[in-house]
Amino acid sequence: MSSCNTTHVSALPLYLEDSVEERVVGGEVARPNSWPWQISLQYKSGSSFYHTCGGTLIRRGWVMTAAHCVDRSRTWRVVLGDHNINSHEGREQYMSVSRVYIHPNWNSNNVAGGWDIALLRLSSEASLNNYVQLASLPPSGQVLPHNNRCYITGWGRTATGGNLSAQLKQAYLPVVDHKTCSSYGWWGSTVKNSMVCAGGGSDSGCQGDSGGPLNCSVNGKWVVHGVTSFVSSSGCNAYRKPTVFTRASAYISWMNGVSIKH
User: Fold this and answer.
1) Are residues 232 and 139 in the same domain?
2) Do 120 and 143 have their domain in common?
3) Which residues contact 232 (CB under 8 A, 6 or more apart)?
4) Would you say residue 16 has pLDDT above 60?
5) Cα separations in angstroms, 235 against 17, 20, 21, 69
6) DSSP state of 11
7) Which of 132, 168, 180, 243 is deepest in the core (most CB within 10 A)?
8) Active-site positions?
9) Which top EC class is named for this enzyme in its record (predicted)?
10) What phi, psi does 83 have (nearest 5°)?
């Protein structure tokens, strides 16, 4: 590859489910149910449900996901405790979604505008066990340092886009601080303060899918710091184009407000 290709800054943001890459560097199959707050968000088509995005169980009746995953009107369900989405393993809990709350500032015509977050009200409360747990969310406003250890998790591509991983995968994606990520030659002004970047090296993948968690190690505990939002149109592990997440700590008060009122 000629060096001139690596310096262009015109790579457009793209949601993971629209990505052209079929398999991604750096991903591995997760130990079953080792990320017990990870959910599969599925939509109904005909008499079947199909995986489209990830999400995070944040309260027994509430899931956090990306706004762009749910800004179309569909019949949704959430599957908790899943590992292989193509088989019934007996640990799953299937919940219908009674209401979708998209952030009021979300604009589906502007990928890089931010506000890519939504809450799903489940029709019933999850039963917590070894396979289904609530995620820990960060304190409001907390920003992680450069290179903080994080993992993205998810089932990867949607069935319409090519190969979907049946088993939950994880990939190591260290945090790229905002100063670096928003600099020239990286994402520039596309990345807002309300976002988190992670990865961006040649060996870091974006094995996972939109709406799913960025799981970060903070003081020896896993905390969900991000909601997977977009990658570069030039590929998942594009040079200086880390995966971009909605920063969960920027939306704590909004999420609390929604779940307290409803």
Assistant:
1) yes
2) no
3) 11, 12, 13, 14, 238, 241
4) yes
5) 12, 7, 6, 20
6) P
7) 243
8) 68, 116, 210
9) hydrolase
10) -130, -60
